[in-house]
Amino acid sequence: MPEATSQEKQMSSKDTKERILQAALAEFCDHGYAGANIARIVASAACNVRMIYHYYDNKDGLYRACLERVYAELRESEDKLHFWDSAPSEGIAQLTRFTFDYMWNNPQFPRMMLNENLNEGRFVREITSVNSRSRPLLEHIGLLLERGVETGEFKRRQKPLDVYLTILALSFIHISNLHTLMATFSFDARSPEFLHRRRDQAVDIVLAHLRGA
What we know:
By secondary structure, the chain is mainly α. It has two domains: 1-56, Orthogonal Bundle (Arc Repressor Mutant, subunit A), CATH 1.10.10; 69-210, Orthogonal Bundle (Tetracycline Repressor, domain 2). The protein has eleven helices and no strands. Helix 1 (6-35) runs antiparallel to helix 2 (38-45) and helix 1 (6-35) packs across helix 4 (59-81). The longest helix is centred in the N-terminal third of the chain and has 30 residues, at 6-35. It starts with 5 loop residues before the first helix and ends with a helix.
């Protein structure tokens, strides 16, 4: 049997590393950091336990890698929008619709956020890229807000962080409280009708505030 080339070995190494990361993401989402089990990750990734320590050092390193991945994927998806190139109102509406849909369609992000908040942000503070990659988002929102004030579309001068936190809150509450909301108010928070209505309301709320309505 011919010996594997260096390129084939490199591809195999990347595949193993990615399998471990995906298995770990599922494990941390389901069980949190404290409840996650390395043995289950090894079984799911179909790898040797030594590979986890080879690529990620330890459980902490693996958890940090998972956090970094979900944040990076969100920021990369936001960048593809180029929402800052649109007119102020439309740009803010695009970002709001995107954030609402992203949180619902990519459950790993909100679940990792919830888990990390139980850790009081201990691990995410150690990942410098999370903060550095978030700054351009606020800068882009700031550009839209300034243009909106200059053109008269927006009556209120708001801080970019405040606007994004409002967008995030409106995009997240029905996810973080999904089961208790459905049990309390007897409705289906997963239905397309509800999600479409809530997304439209989120856009209306954010724009109404900026317009001073």
